[in-house]
Q: What sequence folds into this?
């Protein structure tokens, strides 16, 4: 795992797209993560940046609801898949630490499950502050810093490169990321001039549990962390 995370996700692009686009497959997304994240999202505004857009499922959900979107991903394959959805005004193949947009170009940045998949999330957060208009919002979801195997949790404050393989219903996905403590993200937000307006640790409701009993463990330990942040004026 000596390569950069962006290169790793480019290798996993087809694997991830099958995982994300197979109907009914990613129940953690459809029944837990996205419904809770959606509650934090500000309404459609002038322009939204989908940071780390992957194959484009966030754009596919938000465009029909009136959001104008531009996407960005470092993986050429994933950027092409997102572009092919037709849900974005444009999709940039670029590093999140150097976003090819003007200062104040957007009023909302959505970073859904992408910051922990970056080699330098702090640089990406700095760039989010730059491209957001004063008072604009960053809405981010990450794997919860406590949601990791016990051997890695024992070294919670260390930055640890991880590759977690999961097999479900005949599909396999290897999630490549870097474990970081929560304070890493809050300090990066502070330095970039963001104020955290809301922090959520979603838990499944009764309907989700009836639909998917595998979510029961999310009642007792957090799977995801959601943050709504406002850029200072």
A:
């Amino acid at each position: 795992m000596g390569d950069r995370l962006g290169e790793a996700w480019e290798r996993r692009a087809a694997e991830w797209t099958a995982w994300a686009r197979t109907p009914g497959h990613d129940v953690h997304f459809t029944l837990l993560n996205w419904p809770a994240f959606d509650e934090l999202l500000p309404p459609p505004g002038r322009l939204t940046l989908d940071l780390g857009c992957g194959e484009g499922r966030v754009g596919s959900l938000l465009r029909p609801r009136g959001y104008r979107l531009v996407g960005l991903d470092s993986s050429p394959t994933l950027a092409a898949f997102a572009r092919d959805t037709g849900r974005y005004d444009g999709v940039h193949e670029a590093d999140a630490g150097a976003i090819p947009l003007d200062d104040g170009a957007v009023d909302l940045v959505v970073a859904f499950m992408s910051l922990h998949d970056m080699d330098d999330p702090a640089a990406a957060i700095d760039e989010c502050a730059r491209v957001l208009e004063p008072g604009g919002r960053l809405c981010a979801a990450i794997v919860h810093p406590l949601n990791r195997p016990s051997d890695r949790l024992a070294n919670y404050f260390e930055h640890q490169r991880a590759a977690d393989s999961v097999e479900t219903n005949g599909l396999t996905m290897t999630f490549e990321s870097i474990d970081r403590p929560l304070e890493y993200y809050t300090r990066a937000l502070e330095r970039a001039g963001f104020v955290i307006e809301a922090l959520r640790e979603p838990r499944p409701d009764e309907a989700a549990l009836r639909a998917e009993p595998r979510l029961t463990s999310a009642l007792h330990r957090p799977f995801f962390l959601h943050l709504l942040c406002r850029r200072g004026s």
